[in-house]
Structures are given as C-alpha cells and as structure tokens.
Design a protein that fits this description.
CATH superfamily of chain A: Chorismate synthase AroC
Largest interface: A-B, 112 and 112 residues
Largest sheet of chain A: 5 strands, antiparallel
Order of helices and strands of chain A: EEEHEEEEHHEHEHEEEEEEEEH
Mean pLDDT of chain A: 94
Shape of chain A: globular
Low-confidence stretches of chain A: none
Oligomer: homotetramer
CATH topology of chain A: Chorismate synthase, AroC fold
Strand content of chain A: 15-25%
Structural class of chain A: alpha+beta
Number of strands of chain A: 17
Helix content of chain A: 10-25%
CATH class of chain A: Alpha Beta
C-alpha cells in the first residue's frame, strides 16, 4: 500500500520524522500555473510547529525546496517535487520507544507490519510531520481552485468538549502534562453541482480517504452526519427551490452531497481529532525485548493539542480530494 | 470515476434499478475457493427487500446467477461475475421524477452530472438496489475471511435516536408516512496486527471508501470516534500489556487501528444512516422543464427505514476493505 | 492482477471460453452517446468465428446483450455491461488437456498459477474468445472517436511470411493440418498533437498494454520500429515543415509519437501474431498425473490462422488506448 | 497521466534535465532489505554519461542521495526516495530550441501538450537523463530479485544494423556527426512458472509498459517475436518434456511467456533503439514565433549512440516489471 493519493492527480508523500528530508511529488498538475510562493508559505506556517504557545517547541522552518516541476515559479507539466530538510532532529529522545511502544501511537502496529525494521525515530513515516508535504500539495491545489472561485475554510468547533472556550482546554491540558482533542469543521464553497460519482468514487469517499491521511483523525461526518441519524425523513429532506434562476436547497443536511455527487450547495464536513497520545504522564506499556509489562515515560517536545495546527491539513486534504474529483470530470466528447 | 473498489482485489459494480440486470465482477479472487452458495444466499436474504413488515414491498428474489469465474462452485482464478435480473420493475412509478427531482435523492446531482441522460428510473445506478451486488462480493469475501478466523458482525445501535426500542421508531414512521435513520456498529474480530498502511491506504481510509459506497451513509467513526475528541490524552490512551504472551491494549478507544494499521484488537466502527428520503408526504421541489417551484408527491414502494437492511451491506463493505488490505500484504521476499 | 484496462476509462473483461457467458463492463463512458447497434454488430462480425472458410467452424453468433448502462441505445453514465452467452460449447473436446497441456497455449502456465483450479476448458479466460468483449468495448470507443474525426484502420501485411498472397498460406496450412501467423499494421488518423505522456503513460506504453491483451501477439513496433534501429540519425529524423499553416513532419519514422506524445501525424504500429498453437499434428507434451512425457493429439475446431480475425481486435485495443489517453487530457483549469 | 509505474510497487519518477534535481520514490518496498550501495553505484555507472569515448561528454556523477525510506542502508517500509542533483547544467545550449523544435525529440509534442509552458531545457522531463532515477529503482529491485535467484542480463545484438562489429558503427557515426541505433536483447533467468496474468496484466504487457518508459525505444518483441510470425505452428510450438522431474519446453519461441504468464523458461525480449535524434548535421525544422520553416543546427553535447548506456536501463525496467508482477502474486488464503 502506497502513500499516494488520487485517481487522476497523484500525490506521492515521502519522508520520515528523522530522515534526511520529507517531501511530496505531484503528478498531473496543469502546466502554466504560477504558484504564489508567499501565499503558500503563509499557508504552511499555519501548520508549522513552534509558532504559538500551544504547540511543540520543535521549531522547523518548513520552507519547501522545489526540486522539480517548475520553471521559475510556474508549473511546466512535469511532476512537481518539493522537499523539506529535517534539520532540528534530536534522535536520542526516541531511543526508548525502540523497545517500548507508546500507547496511542503507531509504534506497535508499525513494529509488527515492518518486522522490527520500521524507523521508530519520531514516529517515522507516521509522524504528524508528514502533514507538511500534504500541506505543500494542498496549498498549491487551493491556489488553483481559488482561480475557479472554489474556497475552502475550516474552523475549530470544540476542543476537549469545550465549544465556548476551546483554547482554555489546551492550557489546562498543558498545565496537567496532558493533552486534548477536538472537532473541526470544514466547508467548501463554490463547487459546482455535478462533481463526483456514485458508489466508490463519490465526494464522501474521496474526502474521507484524504482526510484519514492526517494522523489523529478518528471520525468524519458530512452535513448533519451522526445527527441526521436521529432525524425523520420529513425533517432532513433538503427541499429544492429556485433562487434567481438557480436551483438550491432550503437546508443543507446532506452537506452538499447527494449520491456521492455535489449538488451545488456548500460541501460541509466535520472531523474528530483525538488527543495527542504523547503526554508527559507515565503510561503502561510493554517491552518487546523483555517480553513483560513496563512503564513508559516519554520526554521530548510534544503538542498538548494538535487541533489548531490540523486546520490547514484538513483544508489541504479537502482541496486534494476536490482537485482529484474535478480532474475526474474529463470527457472525450 | 468508476464504480470499482480496491487496489488489489477489484470489485466492479454495475447496473441500474431498472436496467436488465445488476451485477458485480470480482478480479483477483484466489483460485480454488469453494463458495458455500446456501450460506451466501442467506447473507443476501438479510439485505433483500420484501422480507419483513418494515421494508419495501418490492420483493426481489435476489438470486445471483454466476456467469463467469467458477467451475462448479469453486473459483478458477478468472474474474468472477454474478448478475441478478431486474424482474419486478414498475417504471411508470418514476415518470414524474424525470422532471422533478426528489429531495435527498441523487436525482438532481445526477441530472447535472450526466446532462439529462441519467437513468432516473428508480434512482438508476444510485439506487440502494446496487447494494445487492456489493453483498454478493462481500458475502464471498466474508466466507474466505472466515477460513482465516476473521469474523465481521454488525448491529443496530439506535434508530431515530432510540437505542432502547429501535423498531418502535420504524413503526411510528410507517404510520406517519415518514422515515427514520439510525446508527450501526460494525466489529471485525481476528484481524492480526500489522495490516494496513500509513497515510492514504490505512484501515480507516479503506473502510471509509468502501462504506460510503452504501447509499444513505453520512458519517463514520472508528473506536470512540467523535467521543474521543472530548477526552483527554490520559483517558484515551489504550495502554499495552501482556496477556498470555500476547500484546493487547487495556481499552480500545482507537478501534483497533493505530497509524492506519491494525494493532490486533477488534476493529470497531460506527456509521450514521440517514432517514430514507422517499416519504409519502408532499415535498417541495422544482420542475426542470417549467423552471419553477413545484410540489412533489412520490408514490411507489419504499422503506420507512433502511437501517435493518443496511447491516449486511456494512459487513460486506468492511469485508471488501479488509480483503483488499490483506492482499496488500504481498511481499516479494 | 486484473483483467481491467485503463487509468481513466475502466474496461473490465470477464468470462471463460466455457462459462455461462463472457462480457465486459465499461466504467466512465460519457453519458448521452447513442450507440449505433447495427454498426457495432458489423464490427463484431469481423471477429466472429465461422464466417469464412479460413476460421474455426465453432460458430458463435456473438450478439451482445446489454444489461446495464443504457437507456434505449444511449449511454446514461452508469457502467455499461454487455454479455454474450456461450451457447455452442462442446466441453468434452477438452477433457484430455486437463492432464496434458497443449504446447504454445496457456494451459501449463495457468495450471501452475491457479494451482490446478484453472478452467482448462477451451483455454478458459485465456481463450481468444475473450477478444469478443474487447471488441464490444472497442467498437463503442471507435464510434465515439469517429465523432471526433479519429479513424482507426488495420490491414494484413503478411501471413506466414508471404506479403503478396497471404491467404494462400492459410490454405496451405489448412491442408497440412498446420497453422500460420502474420504481421498486422494499424493506423490511427486524426489524433491531434499533444496527447499522451512521458515515461510510463505514453502512447506506446498504453497501446502496448492494450494490444498484448490479445492472445497470440508477441511483438509490437511503432513507426519504423525494428527497422529504425538500422538507420542513421540523419536518415530517421522526421524533419518539420509548415503545410497550410500546420506543422507536419516530412517522414513518419516515429509513427506519430515523440516522447510518448502524439505529434499530429498518423499513429502507426505493427504487431506480430504467432501461428495458432492448436494444430492437428501430434505434439510432444507431458502428463501431470503420470509425471512423464506423452504425445498430445488435439481434436476440436481451430483456426489455421487467426490473423484475419485479429484485425478488429487490434483496432479495438488501439481505440481503447486512445480513448483512455484522451480522457487523461483532463484539466481542472 | 503520471510518471508512476506499478500496480503494487509504485515507482514515481520526477525531475527535468535542468531542474534542481531528478529522483525517484518507491512505495511498498519490503522493509528490512539492506541495499548494497557499492553494487548499486556500479550499476548506475553503467548508465552514467562521460565514461567512454562513445558517450556525451556531459559528465554527471549520478550519485544518489537517499533522503527517505532507509535507516542506515536498510529499507524501513516507508517510501524510499533518492535524488540526484543536476550540477553540470549549461542551459544556454538549449535556448534555440525554445522556438525551433528538434526533429525526433519530444520538443514539439511537449510544446503542444503543455501549451508552451514545458521545460524545454535539455528535453526537460523527456530527457534520457530521467533514466537515472529509473536505474536507481531498478538497481534496488535487481538486488532484491537476486536474493531469489532471479537474474537479469542484457546485451547488444547489433548497432546500426551491424551485429559483428557494433562499436565500429558508433565510431563511424561520430566521425560523420551522425548517430546510430541498435537492438538490445534482455533475458530474465530464474523466474518461476505461474507469474503474470491473462489479458491486460501479463508479463508482456507489464514489461512493455516499463520498457517504453525509456526514451528512444520504438519496438519490443518477446521470444521469436516478429520472426515467429513467419513460422508455422508446427515449427514454433515449444513442446513440453520432463527433465529431472521439471517440466520444460524444448524450444523457447514464446520467450518464457504463455497467456501472459511465465512458464519457467527464460523470459527473453528484444527492443529496438532508435538513433539519437541529436546530430551535428543541420536539420530542417520550423519556428513557432515566425510561423515559417527554418534550419536548425544543434550544438551541445550528445551521444552518437545510446545503445551501450541503455543496457542497464532495460534491465532496470525489466526488474521493475518483474518485481511488480511478483508482488501481484499476493493471496489472502
């Protein structure tokens, strides 16, 4: 199974937390698009660590180096590749987890899958750091989509169950050496009706596959999602009407998607983000080498909450899915 | 975009509600597996309509005819194709929706996508009837997985928001000419640790892509899902311990998946099913030809609730995803 | 590995020589195209057996039944599936090959791959009969391409090494209980410049993958192919010039393809077709069950030469490849 | 269309002749394989320019930098990425071709495809230089295949039509400011019977798709290829016999492949390599900007013949195809 997304656009993500570099190749970008590098960097900075009191102190500049696919700042049709060097690496922090997997991380499942050859340092290819290349790709897609008046935004709905003062929960968690998760909503405006496909390549399927590519996401719902399951058909029906000659729905319980295809209303979805599993508190775990239970105490620099930094990642994943869906609207006639 | 699922196994679903037949081709099935046809039929009957007072009275026998891929009842390595003839078709029921899209259905989004050439009769390729070929494929996968002690089960958690007397809600909706949705939980036992992949081809990504192939599903969550977003890291951590020499987790908040890879615990996920959009009540809609608002009154035979019939579909989708993930564990060494 | 072709269009072929039916599903066809059924049948008849003195006497009508994807004769956007029932089956002809593989056929390689569970009757999924569904798909693609002034033709260059009287060689082979192969040329007119891709998804790569899907083809060359390897650069250069404002090349040694991308000249390629391995003469083989050498004498009805019937198959494969390449020219901008 | 190869292994190639770097990502490599870096470098050196009197004087060291996927020299299961910096770039050599396409190169077809935004410098992504990342991937696959006793070799059959003194033709072409092509044979020993698939994913299809990824190849034939088309069935039949308990064929006219599946004999194929289109002689071409015919005189450093350097590329492509085919032999049972 590959770290490649897309049926038409192909986004290939590579790198580990502590490898020489992380990066992304994007195949099938249209030729001739000029990337606004400043805007892209601003987008990447929203995700980068070390920029607020709520995030890990591991500060990476996250400045992509474009090594292929551009002439100047303009796409040339060849696969675009950007890399970010991993400069601020303290590998010794992770020595202990070679033998003792961190609960809630991929350490153990990766250990089994790769037969002990996994790059355990910093979570390897499973690290949240791999959302940086995703954001490079997504940031470019967002710029191209904006040309067509498609806009993607996200916001925090709640953190640690607190919708009114979400950041307060982060502070509390920090003080406790604990962590919190939250719920994020993402909206896509301007996507015309008729995009997507029934059954397996619908808007829900494609966005889900992209969004679960972000570490820590454990649920997704479209429109009213789990809440719609409590409604009656007469309450959830999204009736049609004409407004200025355009067909619209009075409500948007279906989140802009019917039968896997956009209906011209905003695409709306929410994702559940789990609390960062890295906490300062001691945790029970096991030792592979000793074959016995043990207690793990993880040092290192970790976010008490990844929800604020996950916003651009969700937007990037959504943009990537929408981009692929739009490319799927090819037609020889 | 294709109605094909899988990176390794390829499940190609075809047919419309009112075409000559619906069916499925499965490429890459192992050769030499003997399908228990009686067991498969029992599985299909759980999905088939007309078998309880809660479902549509359109009774289709849903008996697959295997037209390729078998010698006797045994797979021969060639693509397996099964079809079900559409026999009980009353197309005139659907004449009105050619011009007036039903709210909550794919009528309108399909109309735009296919430029008016869509097969609107009975929802065409978007019909819930297309879950029958999904269940043929899934039913076969389930049998092969059972050989390896992998078991998939699902159950209704609630209908219409009622967890204690879910069927009562269906009866109420029937009496009101209304409909209800619900929440279904699915569990997969026996999947060994190490299956899946980081980033885009993980267990969550693959199950999601499969499950959103079922019409009416609007949300999915793994393990504690949206509830985990309200917990602290210290509460949601799934600590490890040894039990009889095996590594297990004390809790299963992550639903058996870490970093996209199974950890040997049960895979657990829940899906939100929306209320059937077909209701007897009048609904506001529009007329394409008149370019004005109108009122739609749908006759026809419809389920007040598809949740009971969706159970085997969810199991089928899960089996298909797990099967594909297992095939992805190929290795040349 | 699947019997599915295409990155954008998806052509899924199923069936065995002696299964209930053979058929094809095509996903991603444009909606609203009206198939000329009479024209399609004429195309299929060029491939069908039993229509000339040179072909097998197994006469199959090869009339496709369209079971999905159409409303009337018009595509509706849903996957199109057509099947052909296998009616004229004499399975006992093939009993001997269950144990004794026919030289030059796939009997032995399939036997190993499928562990003895292969459908050996009539070559199973490896039978030349499976080119019938390929021709259904190709025949439809050809019609859609013709709308855009793209025309595909093929012709016999030689049979049994005889370019002047190719059919004479077939007659000789028939009289001798032997068989002959030949070389076929295919040309594609009207494909605009700029279609295809460098490296792995070029015109050569895509046509090759499609054409080697036809049993019996052992070589393919584009433009001057193997002959160009004997020329000098100064002789093979395809210089440019303007003609009526259009850029053309003086020669077409590259067969209309440079860097995997069409240059607006005719696409030209040739394929080598091996002699039918089924011959009346005795052949040396082995017995699986006895573990010893034996002599095989195949009865049954066979073509002394498949070259004439392969012409529509090559055109179908080429059309499929070109269709997929054209769909790949999608662009979100 | 993407520069990605493989259904199971995914090889993503990126870079242009004059971009910052060229490189390759390989997804799905088995974890735990230790790459012999010295051996890999020797393999790459066979392809590298500037190492014999017959090749271009552009000397690139072609030393890959591994930026992901390894821990030490051992694969860790994460996508492996290697890049080669483009250091010896003289872009001004190519200024003229921005407006005047070189005959026989992809300049013109790329110009149309990418709407004038192509990276024309040195052929961009179409450059033969992109076979360096292919060889990195192929060199790794070859090492893994060798572990399993699969060996891949290639040799020159003829250059400029001269089978007896092939290098003499290169010298002649050099002296004349001309170029020559040739024919290369590749053999794969040790591939067990049963690998591959009927119809579209057979050994021929997969090798062809890989091999046409090498610029300049215009034909491929398996076994006797075009020569088999001149034989009779009784002459080309590859009869079976037992040798030391193993089933073998007396001849190998089919190049080890029947029905797309290996039969345990050596896989043998030949490819036709066209003469380098870059020659010192003047060539007729056109000017885009002037819209008129012109004469092109290309300076720059070019090979009079790429056949010697293409050998490792063909081996790399073959190894990649075989690797993917072997990974396709996955089976859940």
């Amino acid at each position: 199974m590959a770290s490649i997304y897309g049926d038409f656009i192909k986004v290939s993500i590579f790198g580990q937390s502590h490898s020489e570099a992380i990066g992304v190749s994007i195949h099938n970008l249209p030729a001739g698009f000029e990337i606004d590098m400043e805007k892209l960097q601003s987008f990447l900075n929203r995700r980068a660590p070390g920029r607020s009191k709520y995030t890990t102190s591991r500060r990476e500049e996250d400045i992509p180096e474009f090594i292929s696919g551009l002439v100047g700042n303009r796409t040339c049709g060849a696969p675009l590749t950007a890399i970010i060097r991993n400069t601020n690496i303290i590998s010794k922090d992770y020595d202990v987890i070679k033998d003792v997997p961190r609960p809630g991380h991929a350490d153990y499942s990766a250990h089994i899958k790769y037969g002990g050859y996994e790059d355990y340092r910093g979570g390897g290819h499973f690290s949240g750091r791999l959302t940086a290349p995703l954001c490079i790709a997504g940031g470019i897609f967002i710029q191209i989509l904006e040309e067509q008046k498609i806009e993607i935004n996200s916001k925090i709905l709640e953190i640690g169950g607190n919708a009114k003062e979400p950041y307060l929960e982060i502070e509390r968690a920090m003080n406790d050496g604990d962590s919190v998760g939250g719920i994020v909503q993402c909206g896509i405006k301007g996507l015309r009706a008729g995009i997507g496909s029934p059954i397996f390549d619908g808007v829900e399927n494609k966005i889900s596959q992209a969004v679960f590519g972000i570490p820590g996401i454990k649920g997704i719902e479209f429109g009213e999602g789990f809440a719609i399951a409590k409604l009656k058909g007469s309450e959830s029906k999204d009736e049609y009407y004409y407004e200025d000659g355009e067909i619209k729905t009075k409500t948007n319980n279906n989140g802009g998607i019917l039968g896997g295809i956009s209906n011209g209303m905003d695409i709306v979805f929410k994702v559940a983000v789990k609390p960062t599993p890295s906490i300062s508190k001691e945790q029970d775990s096991i030792s592979y080498s000793k074959g016995e239970n043990t207690v793990l105490s993880v040092k290192g620099r970790h976010d008490p909450c990844i929800v604020p930094r996950i916003l651009p990642c969700v937007e990037a994943a959504a943009a990537m899915a929408i981009f692929d869906l739009l490319m799927g609207e090819c037609n020889v006639r």
